[in-house]
Amino acid sequence: MAEEKDLKLEEAAAPEPKGKKKLLFIIIGALVVIGIAVGITLFLIMGDAGGGSDEEAEASTETATSTKAPAQYIKLKPEFVVNFQVGPRQRFLQVFIEVMTRNGAVASGLEEHSPRIRSEIIRVISQNDFEQLRTAEGRSALQAAIADVLKQIMREEIGTDEIEQVLFTNYVMQ
Fold first, then answer.
1. pTM
2. How far apart are alpha carbons 21 and 11 in whole angstroms?
3. Average pLDDT of the chain to the nearest whole number
4. How much is the pLDDT for 94?
5. Nearest residue to 164 via CA among 60, 74, 57
6. 73/93 Cα distance (integer angstroms)
7. Contact between 135 and 171 (Cβ < 8 Å)
8. Distance of CA 149 to the CA centre of its chain
9. 80 partner at 20 to 30 Å CA-CA among 145, 157, 172, 173?
10. pLDDT classification of 147: cutoffs 50, 70, 90
11. How many angstroms separate the Cα of 62 from the Cα of each of 2, 54, 55, 69?
12. Which of 153, 95, 168 is nearest to 126 (CA)?
């Protein structure tokens, strides 16, 4: 009887090492998977931190600065209408202008100083040749000239010139 009890104990003890082996393999497998994941993560982090080029750094800096504040579009109301004498005929240019900025001070400055801004924009448009304004290059040059004038006025009046774009939302010539 003692022999039967010893056999039963040995048989009962025999399955435990199989269960322990399975558990050991599961733990080792989990540690290997975790180690690989940590290694890949560190590799990717170290690769981004040290290996970026100057162009990539500039692009990420530009993206970071451009996402600081949302774009604000300020409509310069009412539309601008300028007349041109072309030979014996009277011609007109009607343009709706919006200014894009990300600075709230510039947005309020554009509204506060609108009489001076309107006067300068009309002066800049009037100085151009009607036939030149009919071309795409002429419109682009006019946008750049207006942007320069607006930046100059904002520098003088509020101390900053953070105007990103001058947009023509409607451009009609007759």
1. 0.60
2. 17
3. 83
4. 95
5. 74
6. 22
7. no
8. 25
9. 157
10. very high
11. 84, 12, 10, 12
12. 95
Token output for 7 = 């056999």
63 vs 60, 68, 101, 138, 151, CA distance in Å?
Answer: 5, 9, 15, 30, 22
Q: Give residue 20's identity as a one-letter amino acid code.
A: K
pLDDT tens digits, 11-59: 555 555 667 888 888 888 888 888 888 888 887 887 655 555 555 555 5
For 104, residues 6+ apart whose C-beta sits below 8 A from its C-beta are 69, 72
SS3 69: coil
Q: How many Å separate Cα 136 from the centre of its chain?
A: 26
The pair of structure tokens assigned to 74 is 């300020």
Task: Count Cβ atoms below 10 Å from residue 169 Cβ, excluding itself.
Answer: 11
pLDDT at 84 over 70: yes
Give the H or E element holding residue 78. Answer: strand 72-86
Does pLDDT of 93 surpass 70? Answer: yes
